[in-house]
Design brief:
It is a single chain. Helix 1 packs across helix 3. The protein has a single domain, classed as Fe-S cluster assembly (FSCA) (GMP Synthetase, Chain A, domain 3, 2-Layer Sandwich). The protein is of the alpha+beta class and about 70 residues long. The chain is globular, with a radius of gyration of 11 Å. It contains three helices and three strands. Strand 1 and strand 2 form a beta hairpin. The termini are far apart. A three-stranded mixed β-sheet has the order 1-2-3.
Length: about 70
């Protein structure tokens, strides 16, 4: 599952980078929780939770249905 998640993150990165942001893979837990780090403009953006929930989470879950949750870590 980890490789599939990494591929999905690589696919979404250009969309975030176009707005000055980025996302970095951290880990996938045994429970299916993906941990990512928001970087650049995304790190301090007041809309980062919406980006995480509606953008990143929806995209990754569509690509990798086994993922249960996406969490942003510092």
């Amino acid at each position: 599952m980890e490789e599939d998640v990494k591929k999905a993150i690589e696919e979404i990165k250009p969309h975030l980078q176009a707005d000055g942001g980025d996302v970095e893979f951290v880990e996938v837990t045994e429970e299916g929780v993906v941990k990512v780090r928001l970087l650049g403009a995304c790190a301090g953006c007041p809309m980062r939770q919406m980006t995480l929930t509606h953008g990143i989470t929806n995209f990754i879950k569509k690509k990798v249905p086994a993922v249960k949750e996406i969490q942003a870590v510092e």
